[in-house]
Each structure stands twice: as C-alpha cells, then as structure tokens.
Design a protein that fits this description.
It is built from nine helices and eleven strands. It is of the alpha/beta class. The two termini are 34 Å apart. Keywords: Signal.
C-alpha cells in the first residue's frame, strides 16, 4: 500500500484549492507577496560517489538559505530496465545510465545534509523529478507507476524532521504524445498519494480564450490541464515561466481558465519555475532567462487578471541550475 502523504502536503493542496475565489472583482483581490526563491537542480547521476557528494552539497547549501519551500531535483529520462538517462540528452547519447535504485540514496544524502546544516527550523519539500520524453522504451503507464515507487522508496529512506520527499514531472508537449504523458501522470497518482509537482511547459498553447484549444505536437488545452493538475488533487502546478515577455504566464492563465470552464476547476498553482541560473551556467537562453522574481510575478499577475483564475496564495518560486 502506498504511504500516505504527510499532513503538511495535504494541507498545502487544500489551501491552494481554496485559494481560488470568484466573488470579487479582480482588482479587489488581495495580491500574494513574492516569497523569495529556492534553488532547484538538474542532477546528472553516474552511479559514482560524486552523486552523493553533489546531493550532500546541495542539501547543505539549501539549508543555509534559511528559507522553507520546494526544491526540485530533476534526474532525467526514464528508460527500460529501471534506468535513468541524464537530463538534457536524447536516446542516442553515450552518457552513462544509472539505476533508479540510486535515487533513494541521493535523496537520503540530500535530506541528511539539509537537516545537519540548518541553523533553525527550516524545512524543505524535496521533489524528485523526471521528464516525459517517450524515447526510453517504456510506456507512460509503466513509467508513472515506476516513478511513484521510486518516490515512495526515497521517502521511506530520506524523510526526516526537516525534509519531506515528493514527486515532480517536467511534462512538455514536444517530448511525448499527449496520451503518453496522460498515462504517466494518471498512473503516478493512482500509485501514490505523495504530491506531484508539475513543472510543465505549455508549448504552443493560446494566451487567451481565443476559441482555439490547440497546443504543439498534437496536444490541446485539455491535455496540458490534465497533466498539470486535472488528473488528481495531489498534482500541483509550478510551471516554467522562462520567457521575459510574459507569454508563458499568459498561456498558463489560459490553461487554468479552460479548466474553470470545461473541467473540474482552475489549476492549483504552487508557484513558478525559472531557469536564470541554469542559463548563466550554460548559455543559449535568449529572452528565456527570467529571474525567479520576474517569473513568479508574471504568473501571479496573469492569473489575477481574471476573477476565474485568481489566486490568493502562490507560495513558491524556484530557480533551476545545473548541479
């Protein structure tokens, strides 16, 4: 049986669900304040001691921020045989693959270090994530179920008084068919009650209620909404708001509005994700290097421009980097 989600995760999901109100005009709503940002990371595992050393260093650095909140470790692409391929690669890469058995060890190294290095009562939600690239020889349903088991195993090993392990997914239309991504998210949520943070993109989706629902690669608004929250109450959205022109924030407001009109309601947003530090490390980010504050503010403002998508809480901003 899956382990029940910690009480604070359930409380957060409930609070975010209740944060949408439509009774007052948009201009009358209280605006959430920027919470400051946490650091999230792409972690390239190779099965060596360096994996654990990097995780320990990250945990200690995060604890010394003295800021509660969500931190995501993105670990790459799932492949057949319970293997992980490093982030940012394709199936043809010669990079080493690592068994998913390594993930609980990495999570424990992070959590132990975070607990040891904190100077007060700072806490972290450690979201262990993969992407939806469907070139790994595994079905979406099998991959989602397998990742839920990895997250549960990591939580059993790593949860402590300072750190709670959850799951994450980076689901992007360009990386899989919509059915593959839907199956992944649906299977994950059926296999565990641990929160899934959806750090997704909305590539090609409309920026307003224009009549079209089409997004890129055969996806539509229904698919994007489902994979970012529509699948289950335990899925919370922390979308990629990388572009400096605000288009991605408006896309996500449109996705949320679609849910208000056509599904069970607007999305439950946990915050916004930026890639400012990752861009400074590796470049290639023309006009997609929002600071975490800019990303968070763009999303808040886009959502709160419409009473149907307004949020009272937007608790997290996080910035991606390469570990």
């Amino acid at each position: 049986m899956p382990v029940s989600a910690p009480a604070r995760l359930l409380a957060l999901a409930a609070a975010l669900a209740l944060s949408h109100t439509a009774a007052a005009p948009a201009h009358a709503a209280a605006q959430p304040d920027y919470p400051g940002h946490t650091d999230s990371r792409y972690l390239e595992l190779d099965g060596s001691e360096a994996d654990l050393r990097t995780a320990r260093d990250a945990g200690c650095a995060d604890a010394r921020q003295n800021r509660d909140g969500l931190r995501i470790l993105f670990l790459g692409t799932q492949e057949d045989g319970d293997l992980l391929r490093p982030p940012g690669t394709t199936a043809s890469t010669g990079a080493a693959r690592t068994s998913t058995d390594r993930v609980p060890q990495v999570a424990a190294a992070y959590a132990d270090s975070f607990a040891q290095c904190r100077t007060g009562d700072t806490t972290a939600l450690l979201a262990l994530g993969v992407n939806n690239k469907d070139d790994g020889g595994v079905s979406g349903a099998a991959a989602g179920t397998a990742w839920a088991r990895v997250v549960e195993a990591a939580a059993q090993r790593a949860d402590n008084k300072a750190v709670t392990v959850t799951g994450a997914v980076d689901a992007e239309p360009s990386w899989s068919t919509p059915s593959w991504a839907r199956s992944w998210v649906g299977s994950y949520t059926r296999a565990t009650q641990r929160t899934l943070y959806a750090a997704n993109s909305a590539d090609g989706c409309p920026t307003s209620a224009t009549g079209t629902t089409a997004c890129n690669n055969g996806w539509d608004l229904a698919d994007v909404h489902y994979t970012a929250g529509g699948a289950a109450p335990t899925v919370l959205a922390i979308p990629q708001i990388y572009r400096t022109d605000g288009i991605q924030a408006r896309q996500w407001a449109a996705v949320s509005h679609w849910g208000h009109v056509h599904a069970d309601g607007p999305l439950r947003f946990a915050g916004a994700l930026a890639q400012h530090t990752a861009c400074s490390q590796r470049g290639g980010c023309e006009r997609t290097d929002n600071t975490p504050k800019a990303a968070w503010t763009q999303l808040r403002d886009a959502l709160n421009a419409n009473a149907d998508t307004r949020v009272k809480e937007l608790p997290y901003a996080s910035d991606m980097s390469w570990a």
